[in-house]
Amino acid sequence: MVRMLSVERLVKRRGSREILTDVTFRAAPGRVTGLLGPNGAGKSSTLRILLGLDRADAGTALVDGQPYRRLRQPLRTVGSMLDGSGAHRSRTARNHLTWMARSNGIPTRRVAEVLDQVGLGAVGGTRVGRFSYGMCQRLGLAAALLGEPRALVLDEPVNGLDPEGIRWIRVLLRGHADAGGTVLLSSHLISEVDQIADDLVVIAHGRVVAAGPIREVTAGYPTLEDAFFALTQPVAGGR
Amino acid sequence: MTFPNTVAAEIRKTATLPATMVALTVAVLGPVAITLINAVGVRAALRSGRPELTAYTSPVEAVFSAVPIGTVGAVVLGVVAVSGEYTANRANIGGGRQITTTLTATPSRLGVLAGKAIAVGLLVAVAALVAIPASLALAGGIIGGDAPPTPDGVLSRSVGAGIYWMLTALTALAVTVFTRNGIAPIIVLVVNSSLVSVSVLLSHLTPLARFLPDLAGMSMFAGDLLAFDEALAPLTGGVVMATWTAGLLALAGAVFRWRDA
Amino acid sequence: MIRAYGRAAATELAKLSGLPAVLATVLGTIGAAMVITGALAVSPVGADEPVAVVLQAVPYLQAGTISLGVLAVGTEYTDGQIHTTLRCVPDRLTVLAGKTLAYLAWATGTAVAALATGLLTTRVTLATRDVPVVTDGPPENIVGAAVYLVLIGLLGVALATLTRAVVPALVVTLSLILVVSPALDAITPHARYLPGRAGGLLYLPDPAPVLTPTTGLLVLLGWVVVTGGGAVAAFRRRDA
């Protein structure tokens, strides 16, 4: 089964300001696609539309040709993680994952499995409000993995993780893509994306300024960092 | 002097919270709006020659029966001034609470609390100074010549209502210091803001209930509206409520000092 | 469709039971029923009709079901949990249907438990005071009170959906029903069409009957449908 994520000519306005302009890219199975851009470039807005949270003013964002809102059991198709845990602070981590599992008919044994997988096995009964930032990130990852989805959509997944956590997620995402899964992740950390991604979508001021395999995007620049600044700065940028 | 700075910071912080603007709007527009409806109702009853249709016919009572909605505004103001400090930013649940910023900027716990109390007290006083005279003018204007003669003590009852709001807001502030969360104080204090409060219920049980803060305080402005026979004299009631408030604030100060942020 | 709603309701039930604030509200409502009916039953002016005593407590108990309704939706907007919810169940109508069903289950349980506790407390208190129970008022008023408590909390569900936060929804719903409505009632006969007053006919007789309990129920349902309709429309249209 192919799990292609495709974003086509996406436009989003907030008031009179256009925050996304004709954003188009694809994330293909078997590859890790990195969405790279400075703060406020439109990365999260794009992912929120892809996940059916916000509506686009024009264009489409599809999972296997279907809008997310049309999916019956979305967690089994696309696992996702946005900023933070997405859990009410007075719940326990286990309760949070249990209601999520119930909503998509996922067997509840998966709750313990993903808690162990992200290293929160010992604190499943702790209220989320007592978690550190890094633990909240891990809980968000556990939620993404809960339905054993073929596609993963992760917004800034390495934020707040310790070095061991960062390496762990790198290995996890690599393994997921190598097994034929699709990974789309956003980041403002150039070095992280450089190490994880196969394909790159560089976004700045709500527009895609470069997209393609990482080698093509960085061709002509000594490093990805140089490419990034050249591409994202309005004066110096553009090719 | 650092304390004036603390007060200034707290006023700025409290006054710029969106919830504060909503609370002030409720405290000002709420009584005015209810007064408007009350006064129109009273005028209609008087003109049709059937004053027995309404519970009162005086413009002054039309205003003071609207005071409880202003109390709701005062409660919200006192609660959010504290609970806003403990609300986590969505992005960083682990530690992104404003209280850490506040207490690293002003380590003196009592200074922070006193600053907050002064800020809340001032904001409520401003709301009362606008809302009550405006309501009195409005009710007088609408009911006008049809009204029975103005009873005595309108000024002292107006001041009493303003003081009642201030003390209620400070009580709400102190209680929220204990709970660190706005939900429980809002439920309890809003329910108790109504003229049919739990305290009125308790007054059937024991005459001691009149010494409860809200019943004692209501005697400052409610007059005959208080559905309760053995009310304290207005001045005594004010002193009793102020004592309660001071005690709760002192306790809140002790808890706030002793507890980890 | 039915299956999707059932699954959504099961999800929301699991969610509510994971919130300490919900459990505290349920216990608080039952505790309030006990204290208030106990106080009324020992008061010197007290009634000797257990049903009448319990009905007097209903205006206070409604704060409990209103809080339940507000918490069921309002807590979604703390810590961005609504994003998780909508990623699990992208269909907006299914989410709201699940929430409403879960609220109805919790509120019905709470209302029945609180009213039963109130009846029991009153009977025990009257018995210990050796007050003979004269009559037991019509029990259908107790059923009416339970229906009222459940329905009035739906306004909390709707207003929390509209305001997207716990505290503003609590303030608006509680002050409209407990503060504004009685203030208007003293002065204008139109106040009888306010939700608290109209619904109140389900358990309290009207001295000047303009509305019957049935029409009162219809008026209250009208309020629920109007605010609920607005809430559904807003929830479907808005970005999360």
TrEMBL record, chain A:
Origin: domain of life: Bacteria
The record's section on Pfam families has: ABC_tran
What InterPro entries does the database record attribute to this sequence?
Answer: AAA+_ATPase, ABC_transporter-like_ATP-bd, ABC_transporter-like_CS, P-loop_NTPase
Positions the record marks as coiled coil are: none
Q: Any transmembrane segments, and where?
A: none
Q: Which UniProt keywords apply?
A: ATP-binding, Nucleotide-binding, Transport
- Start and end residues of each ABC transporter domain: 5-230
Which SUPFAM superfamilies does its entry note?
P-loop containing nucleoside triphosphate hydrolases
Q: Spell out the family assignment given in the record's similarity comment.
A: Belongs to the ABC transporter superfamily.
This chain belongs to which protein, by name? ABC transporter domain-containing protein
Automatic annotation (TrEMBL), chain B:
Task: List the signal peptide residues.
Answer: none
What are the record keywords, sorted? Answer: Membrane, Transmembrane, Transmembrane helix
Q: Does the keyword Transmembrane apply?
A: yes
Which spans are transmembrane here?
Answer: 21-42, 62-82, 117-143, 163-179, 186-212, 232-256
Q: What is this protein called?
A: ABC transporter permease
Q: What is the organism field in this record? A: Micromonospora lutea
Automatic annotation (TrEMBL), chain C:
Q: Where are the transmembrane segments?
A: 21-41, 53-73, 101-122, 142-162, 169-191, 211-235
UniProt keyword terms in alphabetical order: Membrane, Transmembrane, Transmembrane helix
| Native organism | Micromonospora lutea
Q: What is this protein called?
A: ABC transporter permease
Q: Which domain of life is it from?
A: Bacteria
